[in-house]
Write a structure and sequence with these properties.
The protein has 306 residues and is mainly β. The chain folds into two domains: 3-154, Glucose Permease (Domain IIA); 158-298, no CATH class. The chain has helices spanning 3-6, 13-16, and strands at residues 9-11, 21-23, 38-41, 53-62, 72-80, 92-97, 99-101, 108-109, 116-118, 132-138, 152-154, 158-161, 166-173, 176-179, 190-193, 201-205, 210-213, 225-230, 233-240, 246-250, 253-257, 260-262, 264-267, 269-270, 277-279, 291-298. The protein has a twelve-stranded antiparallel beta sheet with strand order 18-19-20-17-16-23-25-14-13-26-21-22, with no helix packed on it. A hairpin with a 5-residue loop joins strand 19 (233-240) and strand 20 (246-250). The radius of gyration is 19 Å and the shape is globular. The two termini are 29 Å apart.
C-alpha cells in the first residue's frame, strides 16, 4: 500500500464536535490497535453520520451474547464524499458500527444526518456507553474485515487535565463509578486526563493492553518515546506513531479505590462532562457522595479484559 494511504486519516473539528466524547484506544478489539478507529459518543443517543457520502452496503453481524445487549450488531459502509477532509475522502471507505440502519445502499448521507438508531451492542462492556465506531479503508480494500483500517488522527487540540487521584462519586453503575474530579478545564473544548508531564491520555488503563497519547501544548512530541507516569507511578511506555501523538503499552498495574482493587481507568477525550471513570468488572460497593482516592501501583499482573 502506498505510504500516502497509510498516513493517518484526519478527524476534523466539524466531525468530532457533533459528539460529546471520543476515544481512539479505549477498546479491546483489533480494529482499535494503534489508533486505527475512533469511538464517537453522542450526548443524546442519536446516530449522526460522521462523514458525508454514499451508502455502499449495510450488513447485520454477529456479536458476543451479553444479557444487557442486543443479539445482533450492524455495519454501514459509506463511500466517503470526494471533497471530504480536503480531498482525502476520494480514496476512502468509512465503516460505521453499532447503529441499526435507517439507510440503504445507494442513499446519500450528509454529515450529521441520522444513520438510524444506536444499539447497545454485545461488543460493549457493561460500563461502556452507547457510541458509533468509525474506521476507514482505502476504496479498493475489503470493507468487511474487522481489522486493517487506516490510523486516524484527531484534528483538535486536547488539553491534558491534571489529577491527584481524589474525588467524590457522582455517578455509579453496576460495573463503574464516575468522580467529580478532575474538573473540565474549559467546557466546550476538548480535554483528557493528563499524564504527569501533561500529555493527554486515552485507553483502558490497564484493563486493555494498549492506549494512546495526544499532542498537547507545552509537551514535546506527545510522549513520543519513553515512559508514561500517572499518580506517581510509571504506567506504560510510549512509542511515536505516524502524525502526532503516540501509542502506549500499559505495564502490569493495580488500580485501587480506597484500597479496593478495581479493573482500571477508562480514559477518553470529552467536551463538557468530565471526571475520572473507574471500571469494576465484578462490581463494587461505592455510592454517590462517597469521597474516595484512586491509586495506581505496579502489580504482578493487570486485570486484562482484552
Amino acid at each position: 500500500m502506498p505510504a500516502a494511504e497509510r498516513s493517518p486519516v484526519p478527524l476534523p473539528p466539524s466531525l468530532l464536535d457533533r459528539y460529546a466524547r471520543f476515544s481512539c484506544y479505549n477498546s479491546p478489539y483489533p480494529a482499535h490497535d494503534r489508533g486505527c478507529a475512533v469511538d464517537l459518543y453522542p450526548d443524546d443517543g442519536t446516530a449522526p453520520a460522521p462523514v458525508p457520502g454514499e451508502v455502499v452496503d449495510t450488513r447485520t453481524v454477529a456479536c458476543p451474547d451479553r444479557p444487557y445487549a442486543v443479539d445482533e450488531d450492524h455495519l454501514i459502509v459509506v463511500d466517503v464524499a470526494d471533497d471530504w477532509a480536503g480531498g482525502r475522502g476520494a480514496e476512502l471507505l468509512a465503516r460505521v458500527l453499532h447503529v441499526d440502519p435507517g439507510v440503504d445502499a445507494g442513499d446519500w448521507v450528509a454529515a450529521g444526518d441520522s444513520l438510524g438508531e444506536s444499539v447497545r451492542s454485545g461488543f460493549f462492556g457493561r460500563w461502556v456507553d452507547d457510541h458509533l465506531h468509525l474506521g476507514f479503508r482505502p476504496t479498493e480494500a475489503n470493507p468487511y474485515r474487522a481489522s486493517g483500517s487506516l490510523p486516524v488522527e484527531p484534528g483538535v487540540e486536547v488539553a491534558g487535565t491534571p489529577w491527584d487521584g481524589t474525588g467524590t462519586v457522582v455517578e455509579t453503575g453496576q460495573t463503574y463509578v464516575r468522580l467529580d474530579a478532575p474538573a473540565h478545564p474549559d467546557p466546550g473544548s476538548w480535554a483528557a486526563l493528563a499524564a504527569e508531564d501533561g500529555t493527554p491520555l486515552d485507553g483502558g488503563l490497564a484493563h486493555y493492553s494498549g492506549g494512546g497519547a495526544y499532542a498537547a501544548d507545552g509537551v514535546d512530541d506527545a510522549a513520543s518515546a519513553g515512559t508514561v507516569s500517572l499518580l506517581g507511578t510509571e504506567v506504560g511506555t510510549a512509542a511515536a506513531r505516524a502524525g502526532a501523538g503516540a501509542d502506549v503499552t500499559w505495564g502490569d498495574l493495580a488500580v485501587r479505590v480506597d484500597g479496593e482493587r478495581a479493573t482500571g481507568l477508562s480514559l477518553f477525550a470529552s467536551r463538557d462532562e468530565f471526571g475520572a471513570k473507574v471500571v469494576f468488572h465484578e462490581g463494587h460497593g461505592f455510592a454517590v457522595g462517597d469521597a474516595v482516592e484512586v491509586t495506581i501501583a505496579p502489580a504482578a499482573s493487570s486485570i486484562r479484559l482484552g
